Amino acid sequence: MKKFLYLFIMLFVAYSCTNADSFEITGKIENGANKKIHLIDLASVNQTPDSTNIDKNNEFLFAVNSTEPKDLILYFSMNNYIRLIVKPGEKIKIIADANDLSGTYNVEGSEESSLVKELNKHLSNSMIRLDSLNVIYNNNQNNPKLDSIIQELTQTSNEIFQNEKNFLVSFIEEHKSSLASYVALSQKISQRVALLNPAKDFKYFELVDSALSVSYPDINITKLLNSFVEKTKMQIKKEQTNAKNFGIGSVPPDIALPTPKGDTISLYSLRGEYVLLDFWAAWCNPCRMENPNLVANYKKFHHKGFEIFQVSLDRKKDDWVKAIRDDRLTWHHVSDLKFWKSSAAQLYKIQSIPASYLLDKEGKIIGKNLRGPALEQKLNKLFE
User: Fold this and answer.
1) Distance (Å, rounded) from C-alpha 326 to C-alpha 381?
2) Are residues 64 and 77 in contact, defined by beta-carbon separation less than 8 angstroms?
């Protein structure tokens, strides 16, 4: 009887230690004593954060009741946080410095959160390299060889972006059934630049969605991804329909908008020349990366009959004009400063930027989204 009672107690203790209805997050945060730290569930409809005070020994505890995995942000502020994927029954331990959570943290007790850390570490290294390119650019503003330096920096930044994207794709393919791949789908290399485009890279969103629908069919994370994939699928169908109206050989509609000086110029007024219609914005990093290529092609082909008509999706005129000046863009510029509600963007069904159309002398589309070497090769053929 005593043996049975002892066995019962041990089983009860073991069950309690792996309670499938809750999880714990404990941590030791250097320089965090007496500060308040917050926890929020990103997949919750009601995103109300939980909070606790870090004690005088730099330690904290969150005990959360949950019957399903959670996509969480542990944070001091929106600029100082770490992302965690936590499953019921897990007891996670975080070690970090309060001054830089994401750059200093270690996580134990959660395989998914360790995979998320692997993702973020690789991304952080790429962003450090990109920051170093910005330093080089800023240090060479008065260099007479700035144009060639910009081209080299652009090529390097494109390589960094592509390498990071390749890593992300490999990660997703290897861990498609992992909730960490759900996080991977939304990775950004800057505040506004996603590594994966939901439309162009849709197969990876479908891959993770299908895998998680089998592994975790009923949790909020999977439901959110299901909904996003279905909406994206519908959007892709719309874009395919729109593409027929803006296909090769078609004549797109006219655009007439204000220039930085306040007068109005129309796209159709440039008939008789080969025109690159380019949608961009000062806040769009990929657009800014592409501008040096446009500058080089404009210098090479403008005298032969090549023109650029650039439509900005900016909101602030000062930002728009400064970007034109900083990037040395000497062609035609227009904007109604309405962001994504720009009349031209809506007319052309623009969903992402940069986006461009190359038009022949009659205004017919002869190329779409030609960037870097592809644009130069096309122009070489046109003017040979």
Assistant:
1) 30
2) no
